[in-house]
Amino acid sequence: MKIVDTHTHIYLEDFNSDFDQMVQRAMDAGVERMLLPNIELSTWPALRKAVERYPSKLFPMIGLHPSSVKEGFEEQLSELKNLLNENLKEIVAIGETGIDLYWDVSTLDLQIQSFDQHIQWALEFGLPIVIHSRNAFEAIFKALEPYRARGLKGVFHCFTGTLKEAQWIVDFDFYLGIGGVLTYKKSELPEILPHLPKERIILETDAPYLSPIPYRGKRNEPAYMLHTLAKLAEVWKTTVSDAAEITYANSKKLFPKAWK
Ligand SMILES: [Zn+2]
């Protein structure tokens, strides 16, 4: 069985003490590839170093997380753009970007500008875009609408919205990234997912955050994806290996550069 963690921050210092063992546990669990979304300029060196250590397992993205968008973000963006050009061969996606109105509403205008810049990069370089959306579907849909049918591809990572929002995403030709939240008692995802095409679902951990049950509240890591996968198989009324096969194929389709 092969699976892909399409969104994991294992380059963060949370993993400094057991990085190699954690990667080994992921491989033992069948996690064949891990895709690493960037957070801000300062996190790039550690991300880059992790990818260099396991170049056939770990794949870099580049972007500025919406919660890191502050006054003066344009300078960060222009430096990130330089890094994108320098590392274009390896970079498999633009992200993470998006809009987060949970932590800070005061930067909404700046977040919209930054998000739009990331969309431009995705179109310019033909790369998929990885979107973080928190309390912000309306703003994100509004920002994306002008780009409908322009060939933009991407994923709403850690999707936890309503069925209506999910359907908008599918109609827009995007994917939904499903993580540990699926295993939580109060999650509405088990009710929503059966109404969505299986071809649009990919799996992720968002490690070190959002651990699935039974690790909720503890540090998350890619090996724990098996719990999310098992829950997805249950929701889809299929086998674990079938759910793995489908989500693996979907991941490969959205992020083809991670297979080159
Ligand atoms: Zn993330």
TrEMBL record:
Coiled-coil region: none
Domain of life: Bacteria
Cellular component annotations (GO), alphabetically ordered: cytosol
Keywords, alphabetical: Hydrolase, Metal-binding
Stored InterPro entries: DNase_TatD-rel_CS, Metal_Hydrolase, TatD-like, TatD/YcfH-like
Database matches in CDD domains: TatD_DNAse
Pfam family, one: TatD_DNase
The keyword Metal-binding appears for this protein: yes
Alphabetized GO MF terms: DNA nuclease activity; hydrolase activity, acting on ester bonds; metal ion binding
Binding site for a divalent metal cation 2: H132, H157
Binding site for a divalent metal cation 1: H7, H9, E96, D206
Entries under NCBIfam families matching the protein: YchF/TatD family DNA exonuclease
Family: Belongs to the metallo-dependent hydrolases superfamily. TatD-type hydrolase family.
The name this protein goes by in its record: TatD family hydrolase
